Amino acid sequence: MHTLLHTPLQDFFQILRPNIRLLRARRRTATQPTVEGPRYQAYSDLDFMKQYPGLVPSQWVDYLALKGDVVDNVPGVRVCGWWLRGASLSYVYACCVMCLCEHGVHH
Known about the structure:
The protein is α+β, with helices and mostly antiparallel strands and 107 residues long. The protein has two domains: 3-51, no CATH class; 59-102, no CATH class. The chain is 27% helix and 13% strand. Strands 1-2-3 form a three-stranded mixed beta sheet. Helix 2 crosses helix 3 (89-102).
C-alpha cells in the first residue's frame, strides 16, 4: 500500500518511507521565478536524503528539537544549538548528539 500526503509542513518529513510520500508545491527559485508544468510533486524519503545528506527522515524531529524551530516555538538545546545555525543538517545532528553525550544525556 502506498500513501501520498498533501501538506506544506516540513514537520511531516519524519514519516517519509519508501511507501509514504508527501505531495509538495514545487519551489520557485531566482533563476526560475515561475513554475512550469505540474504545480506539485511527490517528495520521497530518497528526495529527503538528497536534500539533507547524512540524515534519514526519522531523525528530522530530533534535528528540530536540538536546533530549535521558531515556527513551532521550540527553543532548541542551548548547549549546542545556537552555534550550529547555518551548518549542514548532518553536521548539526552529529555535533548535538556529541554535546548531549558529553553532558550526560544519551541518545
